[in-house]
Each structure stands twice: as C-alpha cells, then as structure tokens.
Amino acid sequence: MNPRIGIIQFPGVNCEYETARALESVGMSASILRWNVAPAMIPDFDGFVLPGGFSYEDRVRAGAVAASDDVMETLMAAAADGKPILGICNGAQVLIESGLVPGLTGGRIDLALAPNKGMGRDGYYSNWVYVKVGPDPGRSFAAYGLKEGDILPVPIAHSQGRFTSAESGLFDTLEAESQIVLKYCKADGSAPGAFPDDPNGSERSAAAICNASGNVVAMMPHPERSTWLRQVPADIDSVWAARRNAGLASRAALEGEGPGAGIFRSMRAYIERKP
Amino acid sequence: MTARLEGTLEEIGQALRELGVDLKPEEACRIRDRIGRDPTVTELFIFDIMWSEHCSYKSSKRVLQQYLPTEGSGVVLGPGEDAGVVRLATVGEDTYVLVVAHESHNHPSQILPVEGAATGIGGIVRDVYCMGADVIGVMDALRFGDPEGPRSENVKEIVEGVVRGIWEYGNALGVPNVGGDIFFDRDYDENCLVNVIAMGLAREEEIIRSRVPPEAADEPYDLILVGKPTDRSGLGGATMASRILDEERTSDLGAVQLHDPFLKRMLAEATRAVLSHARDAGIKVGFKDLGAGGIACAVSEIVDRGAFGARIDLDEVNVAFADIESFAIACSETQERYCWAVPRGFTETVLRIYNDEYELPHVYRGARAALIGRVTRERDVVMTRGGETVAGLPAPMITEGIAYDREAAPPRRSADGKAGAAGVVPRVDDLKAVCLSLLSLSSICSKHYVYRHYDSEVKGMSALKPGEADACVTVIPGTSVGVATSVDGNPRYSRVDPYWGGVMAVCESVRNIAAVGAVPIALTDCLNFGNPEDPRVFRDFVETVKGIGDAARALSAFGTDEPLPVVSGNVSFYNESSSGAAIPPSPVVACYGVLDDYAVATSLALKQTGSQLLLVGNPGNALAGSALLEVLGLPGTGMPPVADLEAERKAAHAITGTIRSGLALACHDISEGGLFVAVAEMVIGGWGTGRKGASIELDFGGDAAEVELLFSEGGGYVVEVLPERVGEVSSICESHGAKVSRLGRTVEEQVLEVRKRGRTILKIGIDEMRDAWSSALEKLVR
B448: closest CA among B177, B666, B629? Predict the structure, then answer.
C-alpha cells in the first residue's frame, strides 16, 4: 500500500491543497486533517506535512500559536516513533517553535526563524532561489534519495526565514552532525554571498534543518511549488529551466517532475526503506 | 428613529449632513414622497448607499448599456451580480468556468494606503468566493503620483503602503498575484488609483447565485450572517462625510474598513465545506457577500433577485460592541462577512460547520455564523431591533437605484482617427541615450522591486509568472487547460484622445493574451474618472466607453466572430481632490484567455542563438502618447494614431495560431516604447536573466523614419522562431491576413544591434540595458 501522509490544517494555513497534489504525484496518498480532528487520526498515517501559510494569523510569532496546539503533542509522539514530519515554510516555523527541530536537548527551543535580513527593507520576500544538498543526505528523510551537492531551484516566500540561534556553537554542532539538509547557494552551487542569492541572512546559509534522528525537517523553501517542470521559471540559470524549455509544446514533458519532487520522493523512499 | 425632512432644501441638506448622509436634499425628498412618510435614519442610510454612484451607477449605467457588448455564447453570467462568469473549457464531464470581478479602491487607498489596498483585495475576492468559486488569482492596476514631483514624500508613502496592503492581504489569504501594471504621473499626485481584479475557478454546476432560490416559495428559508462581528467600520464609505461620528471621538469609529485575511481564509475553508454538503444533498441555497451597505443592502439584493422579502432581527447580529446604533448594524461595511439563504432544515448544519467544526468563535474574537432572519413571500425588507421596526421598505425600491442623464460636452475629436494634434516626427540626436532612458522609464522598467513582495505561486498552479511573459498563465490541475490573464490601460493615450485610450486599453490587454498563445474569452473593466457632473469629464467617459465597446466588438476571439464580452466591471467617478486636481481619463481593462494546451505558452526571453526574429503585424507610425515623446519631454505632440482594429484582430489571430502550433520559442507584443523596447526586453529577459543577443534590420518599414519604426506604439508582435519553421509561421500569418516581416536573428554576442540599409545605427550591450531597466524603480520610489 502507498504511504499515507496527513497534512495538518491549522487555522490560517494556505498551501495544503497543492501540497496534497505534490505528495500524490510521487505515489503517496494525502489527507488534509483539520487541526481539531487531527489528534485522533494521527496514528493512522505514515508521515506528516505541516504546510505553508499563516497559522493562527502568525500571532505572537510565526508558528508560535500552532506550536502549542493540542495536535503537537500527538505529533511529537509520532516523531518519537520515527515517522517523518516535514514542515514547509510556516510549517517549519511551527517545528522550530515547538522545539522538534533541532531536537537536541529534549523539547528545548534552540533555534529561531527570525525576520529576513539582506533585502534592505523588511517585509515579505518571494522569489526563486537555489539550494544545495548537504553532506550525508541519507541521514534525513527529506534528502534521502538525493545526492550531496545536488542543486535544486525552488521558490521561497516568507518574512521570517532566517535560521539563527542564541546558543553559541549550535550551528557548529548542526554542521558536524550533517543536520543542515539544504543550504542556499548560487546557480553553480557555490556559496551564496549576499542578497539575493542569500535571500534572508540565515546562519550557515541554512534553508532546511533536520532533527538529530533525521525524521523531522524544517524547510523554508516550497518544494510543492517546484514539483512539476511547468512550475520552474523558463529563464533561470538551471538545467531544470533548460529541460522546461526543451519541453515546449509537450504537456507530458511539462507535467514531468521538477526539482521539488525530489523531496517528496525522498520522503516516500524513506518510509518504504527496508530496515 | 425618524429623520424629519422639513423646511427648505438648504435646511434639509444641513440635516442630512449632520446625520452623515451624502444624499442630495432633492433625493431625500424623492424618497419621502415615494414611501409616503419621513424615512427612518436607517432607511436614509440605506438609500444613501444604494443611490450612491458606487452602487447605483446612476451616471454611467445608460452609457455602459448603450456601448459595451456583454453577451456571448460562452457567457454564463454577465454584469449585474457580484462577478461575471464565462466558460473556459470542458474536460471530460467537467465544464470549467472562470469567475471574474474588477473594482476600484481608489479613495480609501489615497487616505490609508495599507488598509485601502488590502480591503480592495479583500472586497474583490469576496465577490468571487460568493459565486461558489475558488479564487485562483488577483491582479492590481496601480496609478501613483510623480515620486519626483512636488508631493514626492506623500507619493512614496502611498506606493509603499499600497504595495504592503496588497501583499499583506493576498499572501496571507493564499491567493497568488497574477499580474498588474503600474504608472506614475503627476496627475495622480492627489488621487492614486488602486484597481483590483480577482478570478476564480469553478465547475459550471457549482456556481451559486446571489439570490434566494425559487424553492423558497414552497418551504421556509432562513437568512444566516457569517463572519466578523459587525462594527461601525466603513460607514459612509470613502467619502468619510460622517461628521456626527467624528464628533463622538470614540475609538470604535473609523470610516475605512479593516482587513483580515486570516478570517477570510477560515471563512473560505468553512464555506467550501458548506457548499460541498449542500451539493451532495441537493440543497438549493443563495449566497452573497457583504460590501457597501452591509446587512441591509446584501439582504435586500439577495431576496429581491429571487422576488422575495425578508424579516431581519438586528438583535441576532453578532456585534463588536454593545452600544452600536441600529443604522450602524444595518449598514456598516464591516469586512469579512457573507449572507446565506438556506432552507430551514439546513440551518443547523450551516451553523455547526462554521461555529463548531471550524470553531469561528474560538479562532477569532466575536466571529460566528448567526441566524438573523427569514425569507418572506411579501416583498418588503423589514428590520427590527428590540421589537421596534427600524426599516421597512419594499425590496425593489431599495435595489432599483436611480439614474441620471449627465450632460456630455462635444467630443474633442471625431472617433475615426482623423482629427487631433498635428503630427511631427521628433528628432533624436543620441539614439542610445534615448533607448536607455526608455528602458528606465517608470512605466517600462522592471517591476520586480514591487512584485518580489507578492506571492505569485501559492496554490502551485502557475506556468508563467508575473514578468516572465506578457500574460500570466495559471493551469487547472490535472488538465491541459491554462488561463491567461492581463490588465492594461495607458493614461498617456487617453490624454491624447479618450476614445483611443479606450480602444488601446482593450487592444493591449488582448495582445498580451495572444502573445502567450491564449484565446481571449472575456474582458472586465474599471473606468476611473473625475467628476461626472462636469460635462468635459462626462464626455471623456462616454468617449472612453465607446472606444472600449468598438474594440471589444472588433477583436473577436480566435476562430469566432463574436465580440469579446465585457462580463464585469466598475466605474469610479469623483477622482478629484478639493484643490480641483482631476485624474486623466483612466480606463483599466483586463483580458482573460484560455489555452487548450498550456504547454505551448512561452516566456518572452530569447531562447537560443541562430533563431529568426519575425515581426507580425505593423506598429505603424503612432507616436502620440508614446513613451518616446514622454522621454523627450514632448507630450502632446506626435502623429495621432489610426485605430486599425481589423489589422489588430488579424495580427492577434496570426500570433495565437503560431503559438498554438508550438512554433514560438519566445514572443512579446509591441506596446510602450515600440519595437525597440519589445526586442530589448526579449534580450534582457522578463526576469532580467537573458543571455542571448539580437540583431534586427529596419528594412521592413520602407522609407519610414527610423524613429517611427523603432518607437511607434501601434501594436504588433515579435516572435522567435527556428529558421526551418519560418515558412510555417509565414503561412499561418498569411492565412489570417496578417502582415509578417523578417526582422532579424538572435546572436551569441550579448548585444542588441539595430541596422538600417546595411548600416549599424545602434548597438547596446545586454548589461547596460539590464542595469537601466532593473534598477530604475527602486531609485524612483525608495
């Protein structure tokens, strides 16, 4: 049977439907679980996605209110069971606010997603960026089927996406433990330098970070917006754009997989892995 | 509370002003005579809103009816309800329809830019949601003052605020931004324009009407209000004329509405559940959004359209604070509310879905679904509070509005393109400098600085995003069908000649659709003008509408000879400040197109070296109102254009045919800045990432001056084609009767080279053009 993924629909999220389509496109089944019925249903699923949006209106801080919602307790139990949980954008903010990521010291909140720096002004920033797969990709479900150094063009859309921490040395640990799953980079994979290749000023250019067990991943870019080739902009500097242009007038080509599909494929492969 | 209309007209006028009502004293007396008694204060507020220009179209409706085509074989619902509905495509057993609405939010945005722009988006998406559709995109057409002019600081604040309002609302709601345009001009210094457009997707049978269904004749129907608790916001609308309210000085007051995209999103999800339940059970419902006039107007409209009446108990309305007046409950424009008409047996389910399943009262203070009344067979709308009647009027009297025949001054020119300013071809001494100035002109330069704040990809349906091509393309998931969207309107043309400005707004929006290979299926418009009581303003309005109507009739969709229907729209008058500064005639036209196979649509950037560049159509010698003359500081001169709509239609069909055959590697229409800017943008790339050069020859133009050939804005398309496919493209163009010329080729060297008679007259590097084009907007508005 295909892996079954539950998408947690907190009040105010807004990426749940396309996330469901993206999960289904790589052969999983997806169900949208309203926040107040989700706790009872969580045992039935093999993995979870916390989708993007503005849960609880981003009151207090992005993700903060959802992080204390009842559903999180059941999700923590699922995480402890080793089930994969992917937080995308606002979902990543929820995972950081709940302490599930990086999850090094019990439930302590060691990381923050702070307001973007670099654009020269505050506010929401929406654009395509490049991310590179970090070392030991197999240690997290999100890069399980990818190779170290793979470059994926993906879009970001957030105001608060700068991974940072007050704990000195935390990012050294995350690097050493290969918990930085994806890093922003230039089109050729080199270090991003300044804005816009570094879109938000994240520590170590981090775009996605996993917990110690690799089964919970907080990812700021939106893989569900680059799951199909047609979603990839025609004019960016990438083999994916070249593929898109070569597919002109061929719907079959344009409905083929885009770079973001690799994340969902990895999730499926991780769930189906032989122990 | 009864309003006493006694004494002279002047005294009545004074009494109305004290109440905060904008009605003219003659209008108030007309109301008294028609109902045979003095109206209550609540009733005066109701008429104030329903007889306002905004709701009644009292100055414009006769002109609109006379000149605009609104029908067609694909039209499901034309103007009249909250949104227009037009058929997109049938896939298997599903017929998909596009639901479109188009409105202005100019006055509020000038005063409170963030809230004004945000509630503009909030209002327009409600118009689409309430038809039973899911909103899949919004667009905005923005007109700002001169950031380098005398009101520079204020203009920049408005730009910043409006952009923030748009992203704060749209991004949080989760609706992608799928296009828009921006103009800066000193004539908008005191009156910015914020025109907003929403489009939604539904299956045809899912469309819900904003009326009580006929079943209510045989079984009891309830009226349910859902959403935000009613407060006093938006009372009196943007005129903010309510002096009484200002004097009370309480913190609850505010004439501009407050936006809440989070609640809107919650309502959209819960509503989706209600609609799905009703569909599965075969329950007939009516659904309407609340806008200007609040509960009173929405209830009147939903019952009157079904030929019913209503009894409303205002005590049942969830309000934000206890001491709110009856007229405020009845008429305030509190955002994020809808009204349902449902059979009584379904009422409990609706209340349960909103209040329990989606926990509205828990997630948002004071929000809920509330049973506020019932549908009656008698056609009066009666509202009570504390057992007392605060309004009791026949529904048709409330909804029918009024109409005026406004005086129009004689046209400035005949509509045949003959009269107008004398044509002079200007001298250009430093061609390269002029070209770079054009690329950094505020209306031509890259808008990335603004739209990088907008989420254009939420919902995951996009195939072409803002800037990548002349139109955005949104794909219906699981199908091959793409929806192309574009909005346009150039005040420079309207200033030369309002008729031509109307024609060109349609032409340009249609060109943008054709340039991605889509077939245009409908238009919407928003007509922004000054005071209609000024005969010159009203003349410009009439001329503009004639222009839009003529162009819509001439530019039939590919493969048909039906006019393009104008299925929804809005008129915004009184865009004037107290100092008397009025905006130029400012029609904004949106066009919607359909692609049977979205895969043929391509971005405007050049794709490879060694391709041929073809010119389809003929840009002519139209320099009046052009960007060139703007850059040269010579507005008001130039050869007036001839609106050759026949040639326009043939070129559009030729380019649609070419792209549909999968032959276009890239395509861009010729508009502002003419052929030069079109080719330059293909070289730079819509996102500024272009890496291929181009070499073009101007020998297609015979003896015409190179300035005309390079900068005329009379339309046409540039298309990149593989050399071995040029013959196919030529025969497609010929079959449509369109002119096609060889223009040049793409080259590896990163330059744009222009040659005439074998001589190079211009050569500019990509980087130089890119710098001018991509940095201009930030320099201007930061």
Answer: B177
